Write a sequence for this structure.
């Protein structure tokens, strides 16, 4: 798992980056294709409009004999009476023809500006209102100039001044952006979904890895915790079979008592595991009633006097709270105080153990502080101590007995009784647990 896990992260990361890169390339290609297609459509539409402007309204004025005599040159006569595009069409008519051509080539709704310009010295011109405004900005706008000339080989070729049809499609980038906006949104959306799925997968793998480690530690601890009493019971049973012990009532009682105590110890371990299962299902029943917290704390202190004396420890109790009336479950309240005091003893230094219990009222809260001068914890351990099955390692996994269930039980019971708990710890100096409960 240790070797496969980094490989999985690397492969998924490369896949994600590659996918995002190719999506970017695809969007760039789509943008270039749309730009090319837009220019081609505008070009075809402009040519279509120019052809219509040259072919439509092509009737010429008739000539009588008098006129023919006055203008004997046939070419000059046609040139004079050949009307230009600007003479044959109004501005609105030109705009309508261009609009129809634009719609024909899939440019419906796209705005444009136009001008029909005479290339002669006189420089006559018909243009739309904003033509010159967009004509000067050639960066953001697409310009097309189409010559307006009769078809090659016709009798009117080269008989008139050359005219040009200029069409401008403004804000080309905005048009392209509007056409590919859904592609961009889709790409971003699915990239976010894939990235989120990636991080969820990594988080799940990390959790699975952590659970695997916790499971391994739990099995090791459980094996150790049950192996010792089982071995002790086995030795005691063998001793009871001895003829000398059978006929000695005092020795028989001694070994029987050992079996009873070790059996009680195993029952406690099993109860702790079952209690953890109940916590998961939230099946633990809480029976709250009014109780004086100082009395319950004193009962918890009585329970740890013997292990405290065995470690030559010192207990300082300062009960300053004037209002200690709480709505709690007495059994669970005593148990959680016991667990915290028991931890203070377990994780103490070899000598000089000192535990302090203080109470005070903070606004409408009853505050309990349990501090010790033990081995303390680093920040990472402090952040995880309330996790089920987590145990702070101190070099040897079995040097402190337990399953890592005590503090998860404490936190669950504190919150079940409308309280809160936090921990402050300095590695090598000690730990302080602070509990707050609403007073009545």
């Amino acid at each position: 798992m240790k070797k496969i896990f980094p490989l999985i992260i690397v492969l998924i990361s490369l896949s994600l980056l590659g996918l995002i890169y190719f999506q970017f390339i695809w969007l760039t290609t789509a943008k270039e294709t749309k730009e090319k297609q837009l220019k081609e459509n505008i070009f075809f539409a402009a040519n279509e409009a120019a052809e219509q402007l040259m072919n439509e309204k092509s009737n010429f004025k008739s000539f009588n004999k008098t006129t023919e005599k006055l203008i004997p040159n046939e070419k000059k006569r046609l040139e004079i009476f050949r009307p230009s595009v600007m003479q044959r069409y109004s501005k609105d008519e030109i705009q309508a023809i261009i609009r129809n051509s634009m719609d024909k080539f899939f440019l419906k709704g796209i705005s444009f500006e136009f001008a029909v310009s005479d290339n002669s010295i006189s420089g006559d011109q018909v243009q739309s209102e904003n033509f010159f405004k967009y004509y000067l900005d050639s960066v953001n706008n697409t310009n097309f100039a189409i010559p307006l000339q009769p078809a090659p080989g016709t009798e009117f070729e080269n008989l008139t001044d050359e005219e040009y049809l200029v069409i401008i499609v403004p804000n080309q980038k905005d048009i392209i952006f509007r056409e590919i906006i859904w592609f961009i949104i889709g790409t971003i959306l699915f990239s976010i979904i894939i990235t989120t799925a990636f991080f969820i997968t990594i988080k799940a793998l990390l959790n699975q890895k952590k659970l695997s480690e916790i499971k391994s530690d739990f099995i090791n601890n459980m094996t150790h915790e049950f192996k010792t009493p089982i071995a002790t019971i086995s030795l005691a049973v063998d001793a009871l079979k001895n003829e000398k012990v059978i006929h000695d009532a005092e020795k028989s009682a001694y070994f029987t008592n050992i079996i009873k105590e070790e059996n009680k110890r195993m029952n406690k371990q099993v109860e702790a595991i079952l209690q953890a299962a109940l916590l998961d299902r939230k099946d633990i029943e809480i029976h709250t009633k009014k109780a004086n917290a100082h009395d319950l704390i004193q009962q918890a202190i009585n329970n740890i006097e013997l292990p405290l004396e065995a470690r030559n420890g010192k207990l300082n109790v300062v009960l300053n709270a004037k209002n200690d009336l709480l709505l709690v479950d007495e059994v669970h309240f005593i148990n959680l105080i016991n667990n915290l005091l028991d931890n203070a003893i377990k994780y103490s230094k070899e000598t000089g153990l000192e535990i302090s219990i203080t109470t005070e009222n903070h606004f409408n809260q009853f505050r309990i502080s349990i501090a010790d001068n033990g081995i303390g914890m680093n920040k990472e351990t402090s952040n995880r101590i309330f996790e089920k099955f987590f145990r702070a390692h101190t070099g040897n996994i079995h040097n402190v007995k337990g399953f890592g269930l005590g503090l998860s039980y404490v936190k669950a019971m504190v919150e079940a009784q409308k309280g809160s708990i936090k921990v402050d710890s300095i590695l090598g100096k000690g730990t302080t647990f602070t509990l707050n409960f609403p007073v009545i």
Confidence is low (pLDDT under 50) at residues 59-71, 74-80, 395-399. The chain has three domains: 4-170, 180-281, 289-438. Residues 148 and 294 are 104 Å apart (CA to CA). The longest strand covers residues 354-362.
